[in-house]
Amino acid sequence: MRPAGKTAFRAVIVIALLAVVGSVPARAIQQPSTFSEEAADLAALVEERISSIVGRVLLTPKVTYLETYGIVLTTEVMLESPRNPFSSPRTTDETKVVIDRRMETLSSALVDLLESDFQGLGLAGAGQRTTLAIHILNSNPVDLPDLPEQIVATALTDASGAVRVTLTEY
Q1: Which string of b and e fits 125-162 if b means at least 16 CB within 10 Å?
Q2: pLDDT of residue 117
Q3: CA-CA distances (angstroms) from residue 43 to 39, 142, 166?
Q4: How far apart are the C-alpha atoms of 42 and 48, rounded to whole Å?
Q5: Is 15 inside any structural domain?
Q6: Is position 12 within any domain?
Q7: Of residues 88 and 137, more confidently modeled
Q8: Where does the pLDDT of residue 33 fall: very low under 50, low under 70, confident under 90, or very high at 90 and above?
Q9: pLDDT exceeds 80 at position 21
Q10: pLDDT at 159
Q11: For the chain, how many structural domains are there in total?
Q12: Cα(137)–Cα(147) distance, rounded to whole angstroms?
């Protein structure tokens, strides 16, 4: 038979744990389930938007939800097909012009996605971030030795619901 003091102490500990678990905000628990329902739609939306801009999407967009951070989506693209003997050759200057135009268009498309489409879905709450990390394969390194390897677009939603987007090239 157990002493009455130990049983009472255990009961107090269990009640305290239940009180702490019960005080976790409901949004933090519900966010991942909401996200999992929308992940495929987000990936398809990004792939649809960027596939018309870039030469080729090499990696199907992958989406994850990081608690206390927000949504992170990654993919890999090729802005221009590599040179080969069966395609019409472009000069280095022509290739640079095409790549520069695609980089500008891709950057503005990422900002548009974050400012309108993703935030319209209501998945990122106040203080949450949505990040799109686009890895870029340099298929013509001789023509473009300084092509960024990655574009990272991040949207931060503040308490009022306003969205601030930052775009960084690495």
Answers
A1: eeebbbbbbbbbbbbbeebbeebeeebbbbbbbeeeee
A2: 72
A3: 6, 32, 20
A4: 10
A5: no
A6: no
A7: 137
A8: low
A9: no
A10: 82
A11: 1
A12: 9
